[in-house]
Structure formats: structure tokens, C-alpha cells
Amino acid sequence: MLSGKIALVTGGSRGLGREIALTMARQGADVAIVYNASDAAAQQVQQEIEAMGRRCCIYKCDVADFDAAKTLTDTVISEMGGVDILVNNAGIVRDGLLLSMKEEDFDRVLSVNLKGAFNLTKSLYRHLMKRSGARIINISSVVGLMGNAGQANYAAAKAGLIGFTKSVARELAARGVTCNAIAPGFIETDMTGALSDKVREGIAGQIPMKRMGAPADVAALAAFLASPAAGYITGEVIRVDGGMAM
Ligand code: NAI
């Protein structure tokens, strides 16, 4: 389904990004993985993708840094031969009630989750315009739709990403480039792994399906949105949340 395509996945070394990278590779895509922390984790994903017979390059880069993002995308284009699918997945949380939230925690969450998507999309904009059937997929969150006490910074970034998605979708629609957002609910990854059993039980209680989701639930949708079959879907926000935010 994705044969001949090249995907760039930010935050592809673990969690949702890792699963998205592996799923797209399984469907035939070559993949550029962008990460900012663990070299070993990124190398592990690279080996798994190469074992499938697909190309995979890994790049260490802070997506919040505009100049670094520009250098990164130029390097990916020259080393991989282009980018057809951009997945803006890199994200962080720095939770706390607004009363105690530090300015630097607000700024950093906005810089990584929202400006990071701007940096990558802007850097690849001209390139994607010229790639037939290019795709942009932004990983937002149900928290961007509903808000969440203790996550004013994260919710603002994820809600901002939805407005960004719809604006980019409108700008690029006539070029046949789609831009969509996925809004996952609570998914089992390192990001949610730190939650206590009590918090997890409370979360499960709010989910009509009574369980957290798996990275594969999100990756399947990302791969579909990247496929030719999804060519008439743009500016959409799709929840993958077991019914939590309906
Ligand atoms: P994770 O913490 O397991 O992985 C985050 C990835 O982003 C890592 O690969 C990390 O290297 C990368 N990253 C972080 N900061 C970066 C930076 N400045 N530059 C480049 N890469 C950076 O997180 P998880 O759970 O896989 O989340 C992935 C995305 O999905 C995030 O945007 C998150 O906000 C979103 N999300 C996650 C949910 C969940 O329940 N796990 C729910 C809704 C949204």
C-alpha cells in the first residue's frame, strides 16, 4: 500500500512513533526516524525496518529548533531521495496545575508539540507540494479536544495542532496534499507508563471500552491516512480513544 513512499516520522524511536514507523515499513515504505534521546532505541527500530528489506535512516534532532529542523529535512531529502509522508508525532508532557505551572514548562511543551510540527512542515512545504499524493499526519490528542486539568500547556499545544492541521490542509488541498490529525486517547506507551495503577483505573473508568489503547490502534490509522485510499480525506481530526471523547 505504501510501496515506493518515503516516510519521515518524528519521535519514531519509541511509543506511537515507533509503531507508526514499523507499520508503514511493513506496508512498503522506507522510513526516516527522527528522535532526540536514545540512540540505542532508534538503532533498534532501524534494524527492525532493515530486516523487512526496507531502507531506514535515523536522525537525532530537536524538532523544537527551527534551524536544526531545516538542516534535518535537507539531509533526509538528500540521503533518502525525498519525503512523501510527514508524521509529526514527537511530543512531551510537563504536567502541573496552572497555579504551579512554570513558564518554561509551558514554553517547552508548546515548542516541541506545536512549533515542532510547524518547523518540520514549513521546512518540507515546498518539497511536499511537488510530491504527488504527499501526506502530513499530525499526532494531536483528545486532550486538545476536551482539555485536561493539569495539562493546560499540553492541551493548548494539541488544540493548536488541530488549527494548524486544518489551515495547512486548506493551503495544500489543491495540490493533492492532505493534512490530517489523529487524536489518540490513552495509549500504552512510556508517556502513560509512569501513571500509577490508581490513576490508570480512573482513566479506564472514563473510557467506554474500559481499557487503554495500543500503539498499533493508532499506527493502523496513520498508515491508512498515508495511503492512496485516503486521498480525499483532508483537514480531518480522527479520535482513536475507545469512545472517550465522543
Ligand atoms: P513517548 O514519550 O513514548 O515518545 C515520544 C517520542 O518523541 C520519543 O521518540 C522522543 O525521542 C521524541 N521526542 C520528544 N521530544 C522530542 C524533540 N524535542 N525532538 C525530537 N523528538 C522528540 O510518547 P508517545 O506516548 O509515543 O507519544 C507520541 C505522540 O502521541 C506525542 O505527540 C503524544 O503527545 C501523543 N499522544 C500520546 C498519547 C498516549 O496516551 N501515549 C495520547 C495522545 C497523544
Fraction of residues in helix: 40-55%
Taken together, the total number of domains comes to 1
Q: How many helical elements?
A: 9
- Topology as a string of helices (H) and strands (E): EHEHEHEHEHHEHHHE
The protein's oligomeric status is single chain
What value does the average pLDDT take?
97
Give an overview of the whole structure.
The chain has 246 residues and is of the alpha/beta class. The protein has a single domain (6-240), classed as NAD(P)-binding Rossmann-like Domain (Rossmann fold), CATH 3.40.50. Helices cover 48% and strands 15% of the residues. It contains nine helices and seven strands, in the order E-H-E-H-E-H-E-H-E-H-H-E-H-H-H-E. The protein has helices at residues 15-26, 39-51, 66-80, 103-130, 143-146, 152-172, 190-193, 197-206, 215-226; strands at residues 6-10, 30-35, 56-60, 85-88, 135-139, 178-184, 237-240. It has a seven-stranded parallel beta sheet with strand order 3-2-1-4-5-6-7, with helices on both faces. Helix 1 crosses helix 9, helix 3 (66-80) runs parallel beside helix 4 (103-130) and helix 4 packs parallel to helix 6 (152-172). The structure holds 1,4-dihydronicotinamide adenine dinucleotide (NAI). 1,4-dihydronicotinamide adenine dinucleotide (NAI) binds at residues 10-11, 13-17, 34-37, 61-64, 89-92, 112-113, 139, 141, 184, 186-187, 189-192.
